[in-house]
Structures are given as C-alpha cells and as structure tokens.
Specification:
The structure holds two protein chains of two kinds.
Chain A (H helix, E strand, L loop, with lengths): L1 H19 L11 E7 L5 H14 L3 E7 L2 H14 L5 E4 L1 H9 L7 H7 L8 H6 L1 E2 L2 E2 L1 E3 L1 E2 L2 E6 H7 L10 H11 L7 E3 L5 H11 L5 E2 L2 E2 L4 H15 L6 H4 L4 H6 L3 E7 L3 H5 L2 H6 E4 L9 E3 L3 E4 L6 H11 L2 H10 L3 E2 L6 H6 L6 H5 L4 E3 L6 H19 L2 H21 L1
Parallel strand pairs in A: 1-2, 1-3, 9-12, 14-17
Antiparallel strand pairs in A: 3-15, 4-5, 6-15, 7-16, 8-12, 8-13, 10-11
Helix pairs in contact in A: 2-16, 9-10, 10-19, 10-20, 19-20
Chain B lengths: L4 H16 L6 H31 L2 E3 L5 E3 L3 H8 L1 H18 L1 H12 L7 H13 L2 H12 L5 H8 L14 H26 L3 H9 L4 H29 L3 H7 L6 H4 L2 H11 L3 H29 L4
Antiparallel strand pairs in B: 1-2
Classes of the chains: A alpha/beta, B mainly alpha.
Chain lengths: ~425, ~325
C-alpha cells in the first residue's frame, strides 16, 4: 500500500510543478511582465533599447523578449496559441496575418487606436491596410521593406557601362546583363531566381500584371506572364544562372561573392551588404527598372496582441508605444530595418553613408503591398514546384504560369468555402 | 566435495527453476507486470493513443488554432485524388528500393570483416558506423557540398574524365538517386553491425567441414553464410524498408523549398509535414499519415508471408 502511494506521489509531482508555473501575472515588484515574440536576432539590441525607453514611461510594465528562429517561428507560435502559452505581443507578417485574424486569435485594435489617438496615419497606408481584416485593424506596422536593384560598380566599370538610374527600363537591364555576363569568369549579369518577394512579384507587377486581385489569381494573365518571361528569358539566354544552380548558392550569395552583377534584393539586406568590404566599397543601389510600369513590393512587420493574453491593457500600452515616433527613431538608429513611421528614416539613411539608401524610401510611392489571403501558404507553396522547370532553362513559362493560375484559383476557392 | 556432485547440483538447479516459474496470479507474475509497465505506458501514451487520435482526426477538418469539425471521408477523397500524393508515394517506394541496396553491401563487408585473423576490426566497425550516428542534417549538408554543381568534389573528379558538370540534387532526373545514395551511405553501418553479429552466430564447424570438402570462399558464402544469415537478413530488410518509407529529414535538408526537383523527390512524410505544418490542412495530413501506416503494414505483412520461401531457421 505504501509503495502505491509513493508511486502516485512521484507521478503527481511534475504535474503540480507545471501548474505552479502558470499564474505569474505579476513580477516581484507587483508590476506586469509582458512577453514579446520575435524572430530576428539582429533586431534584439534595438528592441531592448525600445523596451528600456518604454519602461521609463511605464515603470510598472516590463517586457521580456522571446526569440524563436524564423524556421520554427510560425509552427511554434501556432502550437503555443493552442496551448495558451503564446507571447502577449508578437511579430506578424502579411503571409500569416489573415489566417490569424480570421480565426479570432488576435486582439482587435481599432477601438484602442481611436481612444488613444495612435498615430496610424504616420505609417505607409499600403502597410497599415495589410494588417486590417474586414474593416478592423489588428496590427500596427513597425518597419517596412522594399525591393531595389543592387549592382556591382566594379563589374559595371569593367564592362564600360553607365550605372543604372531612374531612367532605366527592362531593356536597359537586358542590354547590361548581356554585356556583364562573362562565362569565362563565371560571372552572370543578373540573378533571375525563384523568389516571391524579391523577384517574381516585382516582375509580375512591373509588367502591369498582378498576383492576387479580388480573390482571383493573376498568374494566368498575359501581362503577368510577360513579367515572368522577363526573368526566365535571362536564364534562357545565359545572363542568369539557372534555378538548378541557384538552389546551391542563391542570387544574394552570388552577388556577395561578385559573381552576379545585378540583383533585386530587400532593403533589409543593406546591413549585411554593408558588412562585405568589397560591396561597401563598390555596391550600388538603384530603384527597380521600369517594365510596363514602375512597381516594387512593399512588406513590413506589425506588432499584434494575442487575443488569449491576460495582460491586454499592458500589451496595448506597449504596442501603442511601438507605433510612435520615439520607438521608430530608436529602431532607425539601429540600422537593421527601415522604420515605418514617416520622417524617422533619416537615422537609417545616414547609418550607411556609402549606400544610396534613399531609393528604398522613394519607391514607396508606387509600391504594391505583398499579396496575401486567408491561407496564403497554400497557394504560395504551389509556385516553386510548378515554375521550377521554366526557371531552370527548360522553357514553357507560359503553360506553367497558366497551370499555376488555375491551381491557385482552386486553392482560393477552397479557402473561401471554409 | 560431495559424493555425487553432479546430481546434487542438478537437483538444486531444478528446484530453483521450479520456484522461478511464474504461477498464474502469483506475486512474481504481478512483479513482472510492474517491470514491463513503463514500456507499456510509453507505448500506450506515445504510440497507441496518437494512432487512435490520428485515425479520428483524419475524418475531421482542423481549425488552425484548435477545434475541429467532423467531415466524414472527405480527407481520404482528397488524398486519393491529389496527384502529388501519388508522386510522393512513387518517390517513397523508389527510396525504399534504393535503401535496400544497403543490405547486400553490408553483408559483403560484414563477411569480409569476419575473416579470421583480420586485425583492427573494431576500427573498421567504428568507421562504418560513424555515418549512422551522424545527424541527418549534418550528413545532408556535407553531401550537398560534395554534390554542388559549381564547386562540388564529385563534379571535380568527374571532370578529370571529361564528364560535364551536373547539378545532382536539383536536376529531377538525378535528384532521387543522389539522395538515395546518401541514404544508403548513412545506413550501411547500422546493418553491418547487425550482420556481423549474425555471422558470429554461425558455428565455425560448418566452415571447417566445408573447407575440408574443398569449398571455396564464394561457395562457402553462398551455401553457409547466406542461408544461415537469412533470419537476420529478414529482420534487417523489414527495418530497412520501414525506415526508408518514413524518410524525411535528409530530403528536407538536401532539397530546400526552391529546388526545381522538389516534386520529384518529395516523400510521403515530407508531404505530410507540408500539409500539417505549413498549409494548415491537419485533417488531410492525418489521413495521409494513416494511409502510409496501412502501406507499411501491408508491405510488412507481405514480407512475413514471403519469408517462408527464403528464411531458414537453423
């Protein structure tokens, strides 16, 4: 009998221990501790400074960063939401936003925004709209990214070509790519790889096509196909490495190692480009060249509050503070991303004086928001397998694009049926 | 020294043996249950219960954040109609056929290592075993460098013989085999250990008798080693097939999402991962997992049926 009691006690002990860990609403001093979920280690120092500034205004609220690597961020978040251990405030992106908002796991912010007069108007409108669902605002932007044309001045000088500027069109890119390609040195003029945000979406929009409009896929449209062809044509002509080669070293790495002369890439990569001595010395930045129209893709992260949080009042104070000028200025000074708060970007611009970073901010005027729907991941996952062969120089981009359009439309239809 | 030491000892042994034999409902038997309880609880909790749950969930539509609704057999209809499922199934069967080639390699190496008088056997054994205990992630990364189309060692060596450079893991025609080769490379050591133990269990007298009768090394291998090893081989082939059918991590690491060959290399478990954790289709993923279990059970049953034809228990 005694033995059984002992065994019972041993089994119960871990359960009791697990329970006692749950109710820590307050820290030792009687204040509130918020958890803040994010994935980018490069932004931790900046976020810590913002948290310190926030603490000055709200001494009773402290914020603890919960860093989860990008590769597991979304699966971890989803599981912890189910288990009720999700962070109070966390980073959200456009791809996942509608899924979260539609399932009611995010706290609606519209009421708070009105009563506290949060300066929403100071953030890019396209970006604010990304985080509204059925007329309700659920997230407030913290930063943004646009795509620009990065080029290697040394390779341009060697080929005797003038640097890209605002006047460049796709024809200029093609001409330059042909000149810059040097098979002997294994240098390519351009890196036309499969990359949604960096290449595929900007090219589709630049050709005056679209990815997603009114719940319909644009991949089957003539204009969109023209944009995709701009990319695959580069591969077919040997001005870009085929996708099969860029699986092993991506366009960005090839640009870093000066094996690719022109590359479309994110503004957020500026810091890493700046860290490469050769690129700091002769890396150039220009706005994206014009196809049928000017376009780039804008995307940015937002701070959102978990609907299951038990500290919503404090969480809102923090999110409100993060959407203000002071937090934005600290973030800009740290130089990792462009703050989305208007007029605070100067600190970011001057953090890397050798780079013409202003182009990334100029492009906001004609930037297209990152396309997303309720279950974005489903149709985004169709893209690479279907377009893979065409991007590897095997041709057939027209039929691949139409097939993608058809399958994406089917996925969107299923999404609406749920 | 007693007068009849042998008989006395035998009697004592008999007494002990009858005392140890469990009588139904005896205290000893209950103790036995206690000893196997941890394993039983573990099995029930981590295998049997999830199995039942998976079966149940395969008939539901899963909410992204918990909650589910019963939808009947819709998920199974989706699984059967989806071409990517069939492609993944074919790929997975290719992996298991390639994976099985680890067995003959392991047998040959095991019988070579079991030769009398060979020195440093433990060193060889360790060397062959290292790939098996290395993390699949590390194995995948290193092999990706070897396979690299631009500066990989494999292309470099083939280049000496005038073979054109090739993108081994991103060309749909070679990707499955490239990954399969790595699978074989990393599992051979495991089967080698099993076969070495199996060969050790074969009495030396057989070999000596055969040698006296003038049988050569090859003859001895095919008429003594192989038949007497067949129970071990049977066990190894079942384990090997199940492992290959469940393969995932190596492919996940070696392919990446932008690989143009992804559709031609994706395994069933890879597809399961994509559905369950990326596309929020947990219900359909559960149906897929359950079907994979049925396939594995069917193939294992088939192997058990076929064993009568070739497995000899000595």
């Amino acid at each position: 009998m005694r033995r059984r009691t002992l065994l019972g006690g041993a089994l119960a002990a871990p359960l009791l221990a697990a329970c006692s860990g749950g109710g820590d609403d307050t820290d030792g001093g009687g204040g509130t501790t918020l958890t803040y979920g994010m994935w980018d280690p490069a932004q931790v120092p900046g976020m810590k400074k913002i948290i310190a500034a926030f603490r000055k205004e709200h001494p009773r609220i402290s914020v603890r960063i919960e860093l989860t690597p990008w590769a597991t961020y979304w699966t971890t978040l989803k599981t912890s939401m189910r288990g009720g251990t999700a962070p109070d405030v966390f980073w959200m992106n456009a791809v996942n936003f509608q899924l979260y908002a539609a399932n009611g796991v995010l706290e609606p912010l519209s009421g708070h925004i009105r009563s506290d007069r949060t300066p929403v108007g100071s953030h890019p409108e396209a970006l604010v709209k990304l985080y509204a669902y059925e007329g309700t605002q659920y997230g407030l932007p913290k930063d943004f990214d646009t795509i620009g044309l990065w080029y290697n001045k040394a390779l341009f000088d060697k080929a005797g070509i003038t640097y890209p500027d605002e006047s460049w069109t796709w024809d200029d890119v093609r001409d330059a790519a042909a000149e810059l390609t040097d098979p002997h040195e294994r240098v390519h003029g351009f890196a036309a790889e499969m990359d949604r945000q960096g290449k595929i979406y900007p090219a589709v929009c630049g050709a005056d096509g679209y990815v997603l409009k009114d719940g319909r896929s644009g991949f089957g449209e003539e204009r969109s196909i023209e944009g995709l062809r701009f990319l695959t044509d580069m591969v077919d002509r040997g001005w870009s490495p085929p996708q099969s080669a860029m699986v092993e070293s991506v366009g960005r790495v090839r640009y870093w190692s000066e094996k690719v002369a022109m590359n479309y890439d994110l503004s957020a990569m500026a810091g890493q480009m700046y860290a490469v001595p050769a690129l700091k010395d002769h890396g150039g930045i220009a706005v994206l060249p014009k196809g049928r129209r000017r376009a780039t893709i804008i995307h940015g992260l937002a701070n959102v509050i978990s609907a299951k949080s038990r500290k919503k009042a404090a969480a809102w104070q923090f999110v409100h503070f993060m959407a203000g000028r002071e937090a934005a200025e600290i973030q800009a000074r740290e130089g990792v991303t462009i703050s989305s708060y208007a007029g605070t970007q100067d600190a970011w611009l001057t953090s890397m004086p050798e780079f013409d970073l202003k182009h990334f901010i100029e492009m906001q005027k004609y930037a297209v928001p990152y396309p997303s729907s309720k279950n974005t991941a489903v149709w985004e996952n169709l893209q690479y397998p279907i377009l893979g062969a065409a991007f590897s120089g095997k041709g057939g981009i027209e039929s691949a694009a139409r097939k993608l359009g058809g399958q994406m439309d089917r996925a969107l239809k299923e999404e609406r049926a749920v | 020294m007693s007068v009849f030491p042998a008989t006395a000892a035998a009697k004592a042994k008999e007494r002990r043996a009858s005392a140890a034999a469990p009588r139904p409902g005896s205290r000893n038997q209950r103790a036995a249950y206690w000893f196997i309880a941890p394993l039983g609880i573990g099995f029930a909790l981590f295998y049997f219960w999830p199995l039942l749950q998976t079966f149940y969930f395969s008939f539901t539509e899963f909410g992204a954040f918990g909650g589910h609704t019963f939808i009947g057999t819709d998920n199974y209809a989706r699984v059967i109609q989806d071409v990517t499922v069939w492609q993944a199934l074919v790929n997975t069967l290719i992996y298991s056929v390639i994976g099985l080639t680890a067995l003959p390699i392991a047998i040959v190496v095991a019988s070579l290592l079991n030769r009398r008088g060979l020195r440093g056997v433990s060193v060889y054994r360790a060397l062959y075993f290292v790939p098996f205990v290395t993390l699949p992630v590390a194995v995948g990364l290193v092999w990706n460098w070897l396979y690299n189309g631009d500066f990989g060692l494999l292309n470099e060596i083939l280049g000496w013989f005038g073979v054109d450079r090739h993108y081994w893991v991103s060309d749909p025609s070679t990707a499955v085999y490239a990954i399969g080769t790595v699978m074989v490379w990393s599992t051979t050591g495991y089967y080698l250990i099993i076969f070495m133990a199996g060969i050790k269990g074969i009495p030396q007298d057989y070999y000596e008798a055969a040698e006296l009768d003038g049988a050569g090394a090859l003859r001895r291998f095919f008429t003594i080693t192989l038949p007497l090893l067949s129970p071990t081989l049977f066990f190894a082939s079942i384990i090997c097939m199940i492992n290959s059918l469940q393969t995932f991590d190596l492919i996940y690491i070696m392919m990446g999402e932008k690989n143009p060959a992804i559709g031609d290399t994706q395994s069933v478990v890879g597809l399961f991962y994509k559905w369950a954790f990326i596309e929020n289709a947990q219900g359909a993923a559960a149906a897929l997992a359950f079907l994979l279990m049925v396939v594995i059970a069917a193939l294992t049953y088939l192997q058990f049926r076929l064993q009568k034809r070739w497995v000899h228990y000595a």
